[in-house]
Design a protein that fits this description.
Length: 266
């Protein structure tokens, strides 16, 4: 399906969120209001003067056409899934966004759909970085399918792989800020003390999200940062690029990283 022309919906119903939400649910053949609530928490706009300005900027920038180009590029490059991709203005306050320090973009990926929330002043390369990260999630989910585990190890590796793809295809200047907050040694120590003992935590365990997103003594986006370090160490040791890593399980990546970390501290 590719890029859904949500701009047409917004032209007609920007201030009527119920109509916009109905369009989303109809497109994904769903009746689940839980999806809408998740979108609101992730970065979906609220109708107001500020987000209306953002929307007008997005139209001037032809954001939907730019994103269509990225979809065609990476679907071909990764043999990725042909899923609906929705683009909306980003909410600018009070949300945990994909790159919190900038508050210009957020994303949410599923195996069968993808949502991007952006501002009108997002740079082209930043939009591509957001697309790469989120579409990588959808591609990995579609490839692994039922082999995907639902635990902390899988979650941090998923985020690490997606951001490693950003470094490969967009360059290190476009990596998320959380990849650069701590030294290699600091991250490795935290991995061994906080994450290794909890790798089997299921996603419905409250500690899972605290270790992934931060809080209670865990650095903000600490799990993402840990995942990026694990994947980077693993990929560089193996000499692998993003395309070759899609089929590698979190268990294999984690196991090999633990061996490497042990060797590096001997």
């Amino acid at each position: 399906m590719g890029i859904i022309r949500t701009d047409k919906w917004l032209d007609e119903s920007f201030g009527d969120m119920r109509k916009v939400e109905d369009h989303i649910l109809e497109t994904v053949y769903s009746q689940e209001q839980a999806l809408i609530e998740t979108l609101k928490k992730t970065g979906m706009y609220r109708p107001n003067k500020r987000t209306k300005v953002i929307y007008e900027q997005m139209k001037e920038r032809a954001i939907w056409d730019e994103a269509e180009g990225y979809f065609k590029k990476y679907q071909k490059e990764w043999n990725g899934p042909d899923i609906p991709i929705f683009i909306f203005p980003v909410a600018m306050e009070g949300l945990r966004l994909f790159r919190p320090s900038e508050k210009r973009k957020a994303g949410l990926a599923f195996v069968d759909k993808l949502f991007l929330f952006v501002s009108g002043d997002i740079e082209k390369k930043e939009l591509e970085a957001l697309f790469v990260h989120e579409y990588h999630h959808a591609t990995r989910l579609s490839i692994l399918d039922e082999r995907m585990e639902s635990n902390l190890a899988s979650s941090i590796v998923m985020e690490g792989l997606a951001e490693y793809a950003v470094s490969e295809y967009c360059g290190t200047p476009y990596l998320a800020p959380w990849t650069k907050r701590h030294t290699t040694d600091e991250v490795r120590k935290r991995l061994k003390s906080n994450y290794v003992p909890n790798f089997e935590l299921e996603r419905n365990d409250p500690l899972h999200d605290r270790l992934l997103f931060g809080g209670g003594g865990v650095p903000k986006m600490g799990g993402y940062e840990a995942g990026y370090r694990v994947v980077k160490d693993y990929a560089e040791y193996k000499g692998l690029k993003t395309k070759a890593l899609f089929t590698h399980s979190a268990k294999d990546i984690i196991s090999r990283w633990q061996e490497l970390a042990g060797e590096q501290t001997d």
